[in-house]
Amino acid sequence: TQLLEQSPQFLSIQEGENLTVYCNSSSVFSSLQWYRQEPGEGPVLLVTVVTGGEVKKLKRLTFQFGDARKDSSLHITAAQPGDTGLYLCAGANSNYQLIWGAGTKLIIKP
Amino acid sequence: DSGVTQTPKHLITATGQRVTLRCSPRSGDLSVYWYQQSLDQGLQFLIQYYNGEERAKGNILERFSAQQFPDLHSELNLSSLELGDSALYFCASRRTGGDTQYFGPGTRLTVL
């Protein structure tokens, strides 16, 4: 059974601080996706990483895919209250099934 | 806007009842996925359809069923509802050959 462990589950920090969210697995994924979800809405895709070692930047968000394509991280620099939300990682296997992490609930306090 | 539509947005019903949730995928997407999300929890995969056929099953209860129609829209049927079935239900669609799933806005089901 493929599992994707996401940590931390909950993070509450002050505006301006940096943070990192991790997703780890013993399985290899063909790609890994990061989604952000706001209360009462559907998850919205932030980024897809495909190549081992790949780094993608989206303004203050930096996404990295591990060299072995088993893990990924999301780093947010100088967090802002607008970054508040539930962040979900999902790894795609060879059958195009997504294996989901449990999510990180992020609160940025002004 | 993801291009995936779901109706209704909210549904309030009583225990023991049956409801149907509807999803229209993005134009051209053949795969539809259904997920359940309880309060402050991650997504629980329920079931996937591809071009009208069931492709994969997750943690779907026997009281729940789904189908995908020739026009590719999908319906999730929930019967003998219990209080614990109260949750957000999302559908997502995917382009054939792609990894990305695009989510609808969800249906919030409240069972009283």
What would you say about this model in short?
Chain A is built from no helices and 11 strands.
Rg over CA atoms of chain A: 13 Å
Number of contiguous helices of chain A: 0
Q: What is the name of the CATH architecture of chain A?
A: Sandwich
CATH superfamily of chain A: Immunoglobulins
Rounded to the nearest angstrom, the radius of gyration of chain B is 13 Å
Structural class of chain B: mainly beta
The computed structural class of chain A is mainly beta
What would you say this structure looks like, in words?
- The complex is a heterodimer of chains A (110) and B (112).
- By secondary structure, chain A is mostly beta strands.
- Chain A has strands at residues 5-7, 10-14, 19-24, 31-37, 44-49, 55-58, 61-65, 71-76, 85-92, 98-100, 104-109.
- Chain A is globular.
- Chain B contains no helices and eleven strands.
- Chain B has strands spanning 5-7, 10-13, 19-24, 31-37, 44-50, 53-57, 64-68, 74-78, 87-94, 102-103, 107-111.
- The chains are: A mainly beta (110), B mainly beta (112).
- Chain A binds chain B through residues 30-31, 33, 35, 40-45, 48, 86, 88, 90, 92, 95-98, 100-103, 105, and chain B through 2, 4, 31, 33, 40-43, 45, 48, 56, 88, 90, 92, 94, 98-106, 108.
